[in-house]
Structures are given as structure tokens and as C-alpha cells.
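re: ur question from yesterday

yeah so i grabbed the chain u mentioned. its 605 aa long if i counted rite. heres the sequnce exactly as i have it in my notes:
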Amino acid sequence: MAAYKWTVLSNTTLGALLASLDGTIVLISLPVIFRGLNVNPFLSTSFPLLIWLLLGYGVVTATLLVTVGRLSDLWGRARMYNLGFAIFSTGSLFLFADPWTGTTGAWALVGFRLIQAVGASFLFANSAALLTDAFPPEERGKAIGINQIAFIGGSMVGLVVGGVLASIPDLHFLGLVLPTWRLIFLVSVPIGIGGTVWAYLKLKETSIRRANQRVDYGGNVTFAAGLTLVLVSMTYGLMPHGSDPTGWSDPWVLGGLALGVVLLAAFPFVEIRVKDPMFRLGFFRVRSFASGTTAALFGSIARGGMMLLLVVWFQGIWLPLHGYSFSETPLWAGILMMPMIGGFLTAGPLSGWLSDRQGPRLLATVGMTIASATFFLFALLPLNFQYWQMGSLLYVQGIGMGMFAAPNAAAVMNAVPPENRGAASGMLATLQNTGQQVSLAIFFTIVILGLSAGLGNSAHAALSSAGVGSPDLEILSGYISANPTGALFGAFLGANPMGTLLFAASQAAGWTPLSSGTTAALLAPHFFANAISPAFHSALGEAFLFAGGLTAVGAVISASRGERYIYDLVEKRVAPRPGISTPSGGSPGPAPDRAVEAAIAPHQD
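ran it thru and got these C-alpha cells back, copy pasting raw so excuse formatting
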């Protein structure tokens, strides 16, 4: 058994790393993907493709996690995890081999990404549960800490890997051409296949399963449908609607959001009426579980948007202002994000190890507090910062995330009985993934609205300083200011949209040809960055202040979690193992939390 726990740790860490890496690898390499498929990302018809390539993966994983976690409790966690690895690898292979180009090829990539996301949901939902089954309580913080490094660190590594692969030219071998965009998806194929074979050969079923339990179809359908409607509606809320820069005035978006909220509100009432619910809501009466999952949700909402804004900041503004061509920005944006990975790797394993001995509350709360402070400091940075300032904050941000992630996840998993660990792991992962999706929608909206308010004046001033006169000045500034979503995506994609904007403006009535010198000035990498910088910087500050406040609330919630609660030691009354503190008098753990007993008792066989 001693050797088996390390097999579980190594395989689940590989699975978490691959699944989270593929969640963000597209984020930074979209320019190469669109170019390889011959799709113009700046056309309004491309916005749905862009949104679904960015957010579709997260929508599917967030929607399925709790359902998959509960089914794993019923049918076997190792079995479902292994199946997830196989589905994920199949989706990766389809992405690499996509035979189409143009819009058809891009939508095929979206579909294959959704298949890949189904497999990822199986991996995310079962990793922490498998580790909790395999490791004793005094080692779970360390094990889950390493897994959390793979989960959160993988999303950061995906940025770097995506940037590196996006910078490689097409490969030529024996007359065959392997386009760069296929390399981005190829990286997961051999590792995924190897991990699948390894999982099927080595992982075995050790979870506790009670007989005669039924699938909660009503709860599964209500929760999945409600969350899907909310996340899809928020996704479409980012697209322009009529004359509005976002889709929040679209009746379909508002209707879908309202229906989704109604279904999610109905979910608890469905759950309390079934014998074997999808998720035992009584666990939210356990302070350790409720505080841990809620703090994780708040942290995910802040973190997901922060990564988006940093990519936009680097690719669309800071790097072009420092003379980097748009073709180089994906690589360098990934490299410049690396201090965050370093901070996470520094603090993650250590905090997990310490939480096994000291408990999770202090470490998790301090970590969340550090993360909150860095958000406020990000808001104070000038747009054209000195990199040592940004690099230092990224490193400290990574330390804060690492200090929080491992102790918090271990505390959540320790708070539930063994037969419910799959559902608990799924709920934690659902809240983290949902938080990231909600975060992207919130931060996209904040920045788009900020650009909408200030882009007209900043674009007019930049064009005027470049020598553009009337009537071209009014025509071109009108095109830029009327499309803040396109301006944001231009910055986000690390590609120069001025060529497309100039072509569109040149077709307008009254346009007069520009001089070659003026045209060259407008197409220079730094021009577009200068044009959107004032409006973007204002929106950026608001977004970081929002994230800082949200994380501060998460720190307060984390501090309210109370003393350590370990179900194995308290509810089962087993003898404490070395490294687990006990109250005076030799009791094997803190007093049992009667809330969890009350939550479980009505459903015991």
C-alpha cells in the first residue's frame, strides 16, 4: 500500500497537469491557431469562435464535475478516472488531426475541445478523492498540495508552453508540413495516451461504496442544466448585441441567465427529497467544508480574471511598447508570467507539508491575504511598468496562491466521510472551475465597458498625433471607438488589428488615401498599444481593485473555518497517527461536528 499511494499521486498529478494545461494553452496561442486555420479573428463573425475556444472548455468541466464526482462514488473512482484519461486523450488526438480549415475547421476545434473537456472533468473530479483514499490523514496535505500545484500550476505552465509552441515555425519533414497550430494540441497526445495506459494498469478500486444506491437523475439534470444555462449565458453576454458593446441587454442572454438561476435555486429542494442525493447539502453545515469551498470560489473568481488581464497587458500593450513585434508577443508573454509559477512551486509543497502538522487555517488565510495585497499593488502599477516591479508581484502572488491551495483542499477533503469523497472533490473542483468562468465573464465585461467609455477620446488623440487629419480622423476613430470588443480581442490576441481597421475605413464614403508615412506609423506595433492604453489602464485598475476586495473577503471566510476537522480521526474514533495534534486528555481528535452526523444520518442504510 505504501508504494501504491505514490503511484496514485504521480498519475493523478500527471492528469491534473495535462487537464489544466490544456485549459490555458489555447489562451496565449490563439493568433497562431486562427492564422493556421485562415480565419480572421477581427471579423465580428469570428467572435463566437473566439469566445468558445476560450471558454467552452471551462464551461463543460464546471458543469460536469459534481455529477461525475457523485457517479464515481457509486461506480468506482479509479474506473471513472481511467475513463476520463481515455476520453481526454481521444479529444487531444482529434484536435491534432482536425482535417478542416477556415470556419469549419475552427468550429471542429471547438467541438473536439468540448470532448477533451469531458475527459478533463473526470480527471479533476477524482484526483483529490483518489489521493484522500490512498494517503493517511497526516500525509494528505502534502499529497493534495502536490496535486494542487499540478492543477493550478498547470494553468500557468500552459501559458508558457503555448507561447513557446506558438513561436516555432511550421515543421517540414520528407515533403510533409506540420503546421505550428497542430503542435499546440500534439503535446497532449503521447503523454495522454501513456497516462491512460498507466492508469488502467496500475490504479485499483479502494473507495468505500454502499450497496443499493441510486443515481439522482433529478438532481443531476437540475444542477447540470442550471449551471450550463448560467455559464453559456454569461459567455454570450461578452458578445456585442446591436449597438451595445456587450450582450447583457440581449433578451436571450437575460432569459437564459434567469432560467439557470431558477434551476440552481430549485436544486437544494430536489436534493432534500431523494434518498441518495447527488450531493449531500448537509456538508455545508460543516464549517471546515463550507469555509474551504467558499474561499476557493472567491479565490478562483479573482485569479481567473487576473490571468486574462495579465495576458492582455503583456501581449497587447507592454511588449509592443517595448519594441516587440506581434508575432513575438505570445512567447514573451508566457516567459514573463513564469515568476508566478516559481512562487507557486516555492510555497505549494511546503504549505501542504506544514498543514499536516499545524492545520490549514493560518496557512490558507495568510496565503489568501497575500494574494489580496498583490491585487491592490497590481492596480498601482503604471501601464508601462518596470519589469522587476511586475515580476516581484507575480512571484509573491504565486506564493499566496500556493499557501492557500494545498491546505484548503486537504481541509475540504478531510471533512467528509470516505464514501462521499468523490462528490466532495467534484463540488470543490466545480466551484473552482465555475469561479474561473464567472471571473472571465466579469473581467471581460469590466474591461469592455471601460474601453467603451474611454476609447473614443484616446483613439482620436492617438490618430491625431500620428498625422491623420479630417475626414479620415473621424472615420477611423469612429471605427475604433465603436468596437471596444474588437479592440480588447486585438490586444488579447497579440495581433495588430490596425490593418483590418484601415481596410474597413478605406471603404467608407469620404475617405482620402493616407500618405505612406502615416500608414506606416499606424501599422507600427506601438501605435495600437498607445491608442487603447489610457482607456485600458482605467478599466484595469477597476478590475484589480475588484479582485483584491474579493480575495480579502475570501481571506476572512478562510479564517472562519475553525479548528482542524479530520473525519477519519473524529467520526470513526480511530487512534490518532503521529503528526496529528489531539486535545489534552488523550482524546483521538477534536469533538465531533454533529452537523455532519445530522447531514448523513437520514441517508444511512
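noticed a couple things. The mean pLDDT is 84. also The CA atoms of residues 23 and 205 lie 28 Å apart.
anyway ttyl
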